[in-house]
Amino acid sequence: MQVSIQDLVKGALSGSLVSFPTDTVPALATLPHKAELIFAAKQRSQDKPLILMGAKAEDLWSYVTGSSEELQLWQQVAAKYWAGALTLVLPASERVPPEMNLADPTTIGLRVPNSAIAQHILSQTGPLATTSANLSGQPPLQTVAEIESAFPDVLTLLPTELAIEESIGVPSTVVKWNGGNWQTLRQGAVKLEF
């Protein structure tokens, strides 16, 4: 169902599934403690974690835990690559609902999209559990019409609410912190310089 940004934010805050553009591919999103809605809608395996997306880096640091040296390093990487198409998989704090990553609840993927619409929505909802808008195993959907066809109950934005923003159509790069170095889990739009 196509709605205004305000109604999409209200829907997200009330626990509905929503979809909005990002700088990579459109997101399917909900409140972190409602993450099971995404798994059910996508018919997604529980062993595939979701990403916690925020409007700015400061909104996300309370969801991770590490030494002050690690936190400083992670913040340096975030300052260089965010907002952008890089997901950092870091040790999760107790704030992260386990249903975000049932296979390994000790980690959480974090991202700040380089998208004015996504940042505007996330600044009002707070960090959301996100993934690409598609049925599991299918390519990411790119248009509101495709998303509505696959997910008729998901709130999407009216065409008048969509500014002309370039999405690159390539998923984010995903890197995981392994207690001393970065491991690339998925090479996407960003090339991380270690």
Automatic annotation (TrEMBL):
<dbReference type="GO" id="GO:0006450">
    <property type="term" value="P:regulation of translational fidelity"/>
</dbReference>
<keyword id="KW-0547">Nucleotide-binding</keyword>
<dbReference type="InterPro" id="IPR017945">
    <property type="entry name" value="DHBP_synth_RibB-like_a/b_dom"/>
</dbReference>
<dbReference type="GO" id="GO:0005737">
    <property type="term" value="C:cytoplasm"/>
</dbReference>
<keyword id="KW-0963">Cytoplasm</keyword>
<comment type="similarity">
    <text>Belongs to the SUA5 family.</text>
</comment>
<keyword id="KW-0808">Transferase</keyword>
<keyword id="KW-0548">Nucleotidyltransferase</keyword>
<keyword id="KW-0067">ATP-binding</keyword>
<protein>
    <recommendedName>
        <fullName>L-threonylcarbamoyladenylate synthase</fullName>
        <ecNumber>2.7.7.87</ecNumber>
    </recommendedName>
</protein>
<dbReference type="GO" id="GO:0000049">
    <property type="term" value="F:tRNA binding"/>
</dbReference>
<dbReference type="Pfam" id="PF01300">
    <property type="entry name" value="Sua5_yciO_yrdC"/>
</dbReference>
<keyword id="KW-0819">tRNA processing</keyword>
<dbReference type="InterPro" id="IPR050156">
    <property type="entry name" value="TC-AMP_synthase_SUA5"/>
</dbReference>
<dbReference type="GO" id="GO:0008033">
    <property type="term" value="P:tRNA processing"/>
</dbReference>
<dbReference type="InterPro" id="IPR006070">
    <property type="entry name" value="Sua5-like_dom"/>
</dbReference>
<dbReference type="GO" id="GO:0061710">
    <property type="term" value="F:L-threonylcarbamoyladenylate synthase"/>
</dbReference>
<dbReference type="GO" id="GO:0003725">
    <property type="term" value="F:double-stranded RNA binding"/>
</dbReference>
<feature type="domain" description="YrdC-like">
    <location>
        <begin position="2"/>
        <end position="190"/>
    </location>
</feature>
<dbReference type="GO" id="GO:0005524">
    <property type="term" value="F:ATP binding"/>
</dbReference>
